[in-house]
Amino acid sequence: MKRLNKILSFVLVFAIMVTVIPVTVSADTATGSGTVNLFSGSKAASTWTQVLTYDTVKNNGTFNPAIIKENGYFQATFTGNKEGLQMIFQSWSGGSGWAIVVPSEITTSLDGSYLAKFTYSDITASYGTNFSVLDRLYFNTTTGAITLTSLDYVSEAPAPTETVEPTIIPTPVPSATVEPTITPTPVPSATVEPTVTPTPVPSATVETTITPTPVPSATVEPTVTPTQSAPADENRINLFNGSEDVPTWTQGLRIPTLKNGGVLDTSVVNEDGYFAVTYTESRDSLKLIFQSWSGGGGWITVSPTIIKKNSYKNYTAIFDYDTVAADYGTKFTALDAIYVLTTNGAITLKSVDYVTSGVQNAIADASPTPVPSVEPTYVPGELAERTFLPDDTHVKAIGRTYVDADGTRWITNTASGIEFTFTGTKASVTVKTSYTEDTTNQARIGIFVNGALVMDDMIDEMEKTYTFFQNATSKAVSVRIIKLSESPFIPLAISNISVTSTADIQPEQEKTHKIEFIGDSITCGYGVDDENIYGGFKTATENGSKTYAYKTAAALNADYSIIAASGFGIISGYTSGAINSTQTIPPYYNDLGFSWYSFADGSNPTNMEWDFNQFQPDAVVINLGTNDNSYCGTNALRKAEFVEGYIAFLKQIRAKNPDAMIFCTLGIMGQELYPQIQEAVLQYTAETNDTRVTCMQFDVQAMSDGICVDWHPSEKTHTKAADLLTDYIGYVMGW
Question: What average pLDDT does the chain have?
Fold first, then answer.
C-alpha cells in the first residue's frame, strides 16, 4: 500500500499544474521563535489531488528553506479525511529526487478539525538534511478528500528573558522590543519544473488543457477572454478595454496572441515598444504572465518596468522590451497568451495595450517628478567664526525636543532634531549623550547638508564634535541634524554649533504642511539598514530617515513629528500571552516621549509634559495595532477591548489636535486588526460627530522587496508605503 501511495504521489506531482501560494511571515523576535504562515483560507482538494505547491528561493520562488530548523515543524489545519495529507520534498537541481513525508502527529480539535504536525525528524527521515538543494514542496491529499484551512511553519525557542536597567528606570527593559507579527506577501514564482513538459498542442489555434494557475482562488475562476476593441491608433494595439475586478493573488484576464485567436500579432513586438496596463486600487500588485505552451517556453511572471500614477489609485504599468526579454526571452513568435496576475492586493483592470513605439517617452512621462527643493538664500558679508546655541532664535526644531538650563537641546524621538541655514565655508556641531556603556542602544546621529547625508555615526563618547562642512568659498547651506535611532534608547543632545559664516545661522523655513506620525517599530525604522532577519536588534541598524513617515513628509513638503517605540501598541505591546500594558503609546502621548534612559540633568521624557502648541499638525497618522495583535489574536473579547482602546486614543488625539485630519492606518507587517480599526473609527464618528477621521490600509510587505531584522520592512517597502500614504493624504487633504 505504501508503494502504491508513493507511485500515485509521483504521478500526482507531475500531472497537476503548479500552484504557487504567497508566503506570509510572523516572528517572535524576542525569543528567536516564529511562525511562517504559508496559507490561510479554505482550499478543498479531492482524493489524490495536489493541494498546494511552493517553489524555493533557489528555484526563483518565495519559500526560503533556511527557516527549517531542528526546533521547527510544519503544522496544517484541515477537515475531511484524517489521514488525507502528506508532504513531498523535491530536488531536481540537487539530484536528491523526491521524498514523501507523513505527519508523525495528528490531533483532533474541539471543532472536529485536525492538526497535522510534520516535525524535523519526520522530514529528515525521508528527505535528509540538505535543504539547500530543495527546489519545491508539495502538499497532497492521499486516500481521502480534505479542506485545508491553514498551513504554518513554526519555530520554537525558550521563553524570552528580560534585561533589567536598574540604574535608569526600575521597569525591566525587554531584550528586544519588537513587533513580531508580519505578513510579507512575496511575488509568486514563475519557474516551471524542468522535468515537466506540457502536452503538445496539435493546432496553433487550440489552447492546451494545461493552464497556468500561479495562485488559486477559492471563489474566483480565471477570467475568460474579454471582448477586444480595435486599436485606438496605428501605434497602439488595444488588447482589453473595460472594467474587470481581479482579487488578491488571482490569475485574471487572459489575452491570447494572434495565432490563438487574439488580436496581438507578436511580430510587432520590438525594442521601442511596450505593454501598457491601466488599472485602479493596489499600486504594486500587478504583474503579467507570458505563456508559451506551443513553443515549449512555459510561463514566466514579469514585473512592470515602471508604474505611472495617473490620479489617486489610478495607475498605468509599463512593461518595456528589455524588462520582458530579461525574464521571458526574445522568442515572441512562440508566445501563446498573456495573463494578468495580482499579488498582494486587488485591482480593477481598465485597459491593456501594446504600443509599438515611444517607450522612452512613456518611461519619462511615468517617472515621478522630484519634490522641488528650496535652495537656501545666499547672505553676503564678511566671513567670521561664530558659535551658537541650538535655541529657537537660530534653529528650527524637528519633532518634540527639550532644551535644558544650559541651552543644550536634547533629542530622543525618531528623526527629531534641528534645521538651520547659513552662508559660509565651514561648520561643526558638538553633541553630547547621557550614556555610552550600552553599545547596543547608543544613539545614532545623521547630519544632512543640502539634502545629502554627510555624517552618520554612533555616539560612543560623552561629547563629540563633528566638522560636517568645509568649502573653499562661501556657499549657502541648509543643515538638518537628526537622531536616526528611536526614543526608548539612549538620547543625544546638541550643545553648540560653530560656523565660519557671513552672518548668524538662521532657522530653516517652515514647510507648507505639518504631519504627526504615531507608531511602533515600523515607524522607528527598526532594522531597516540590515537585510538579515537574524541580525538582532541594535540602534545601529535603525534609521528614521528611511521610514515611510520621513519619506511621506518629504514628498508632501511637510514638517513632521514622530512619536514611536518598538514593540508598543494601543492596549498592549508585544506579548506571548498576557496583556502588556506597559508598552503602549497612549499613556506617553501627552509627554515628550518614551525612553528607558534619562537626560544628563536627570529628567526623563516620560515625565515631561509636551506643549502641543509648539506643533499643531494638519494631519495625524496613526500606525498602531501590529503589536496589539499578539495579544488579541482571534479572541473576540480582546478585539472588542482593542476597539474601545482605539476609540479612547482617538479622543485623546483630538483633544490635543482639534483641527487635524486623523489617518488611521495598519498593514505593513500584518492587517489582522484593520477591521477593528475601521469599526473603531465608525463608532467614534457616530459618538462624536467628528468626521475628520479616515482609515487607510497599507499593503503587506513583500518578501521580494527584502525583509530586514526580525522580519521588519526594508527601505523598498517603506518607499512603497510612503507612496501609498502620500497619495491618500494628498487626495483627502487636497494637497
Answer: 84
The answer to whether 247 and 217 have CB atoms below 8 angstroms apart is yes
Segment 583-613, tens digit of pLDDT? 999 999 999 999 999 999 999 999 999 999 9
Q: 395, 411 in Cβ contact below 8 A?
A: no
Measure the CA–CA gap between 211 and 193, rounded to whole angstroms.
15
**Is residue 733 predicted with pLDDT exceeding 70?**
yes
Helix axes 548-555, 715-733, angle to 10 degrees: 40
Q: How far apart are the C-alpha atoms of 535 and 29, rounded to whole Å? A: 10
Residue appearing with cell numbers 527593559 = 173
Domain assignment present for residue 209? The answer is: no
Q: Where are the beta strands (DSSP E) in 124-206?
A: 136-141, 146-155, 162-163, 173-174
Please check whether residues 356 and 400 belong to one and the same domain.
no
Task: Specify the pairing of strand 463-483 against strand 417-433.
Answer: antiparallel
Model-level pTM? Answer: 0.70
Instruction: Supply the range of the domain harboring residue 440.
Output: 384-507
Tell the residue number behind the cell numbers 488611521, with chain if given: 664
What per-residue string of b and e applies to 568-594 under the rule 16 or more CB within 10 Å gives b? Answer: bbbbbbbbeeebbeebbbbebbebbbb
Using only C-alpha atoms, what is the Rg of the chain? 28
Q: Which three cell numbers stand for residue 229?
A: 476593441
Helix then strand then coil, % of the chain, to nearest 5: 20, 35, 45
Amino acid at 30: A
Q: Which of 470, 487, 507 lies at the terminal end of a domain, its last residue?
A: 507
- 356-366 confidence digits (pLDDT tens): 999 999 999 99
pLDDT in tens, 430-479: 999 999 888 899 999 999 999 999 999 999 999 999 999 999 999 999 99
Same domain, 488 and 579: no
* Rounded distance between C-alpha atoms, residue 592 and residue 610, angstroms: 5
Kindly state whether residues 262 and 305 are assigned to the same domain: yes
Q: b/e per residue, 400-436, with b = 16+ CB within 10 A?
A: bbbbeeeebbbbbbbbbbbbbbbbbbbbbbbbbbbbe
The closest of 644, 640, 540, 665 to 586, measured between CA atoms, is 644
Question: Do 358 and 417 share a domain, yes or no?
Answer: no
The three grid cell numbers given for residue 27, joined into one nine-digit string: 516572528
User: Which residue type is seen at 548?
Assistant: Y
DSSP character for 236?
Answer: E
Would 406 be classed as within a structural domain? yes
**Nearest-angstrom CA–CA distance, 515 and 649:** 17
Residue where the block lists cell 546638541: 494
- Asked if residues 57 and 63 have their Cβ atoms less than 8 Å apart, the reply is yes
Rounded Cα gap, residues 32 and 714, in angstroms = 19
Q: Which of 473, 507, 541 is the last residue of a domain?
A: 507
**Cβ pair 318, 286 in contact under 8 A:** no
Q: Which three cell numbers stand for residue 357?
A: 513605439
- Total tally of structural domains belonging to the chain: 4
- SS3 assignment for 258-282: HHHCCCECHHHCCCCCEEEEEEEEC
Distant-in-sequence, close-in-space partners of 660: CB < 8 Å, separation ≥ 6: 516, 616, 617, 618, 619, 620, 653, 692
**Mode of pairing for the β-strands spanning 136-141 and 50-55:** antiparallel
C-alpha distances in angstroms, 185 versus 26, 345, 411, 637? 11, 10, 36, 28
pLDDT tens digit sequence for 492-507: 999 999 999 999 999 9
Average pLDDT of the segment spanning 324-329: 92
The SS3 assignment for 656 reads helix
Residue 296: pLDDT band (50, 70, 90) is low
Is 709 within 8 Å of 179 (Cβ atoms)?
A: no
What angle is formed at CA 410 by the lines to CA 407 and CA 413, rounded to 5 degrees?
155
Instruction: Check whether residue 8 and residue 125 sit in a common domain.
Output: yes
Identify the CATH number of the domain in which residue 600 sits: 3.40.50.1110
What is the distance between the alpha carbons of residues 414 and 432, in angstroms, rounded to a whole number?
Answer: 17
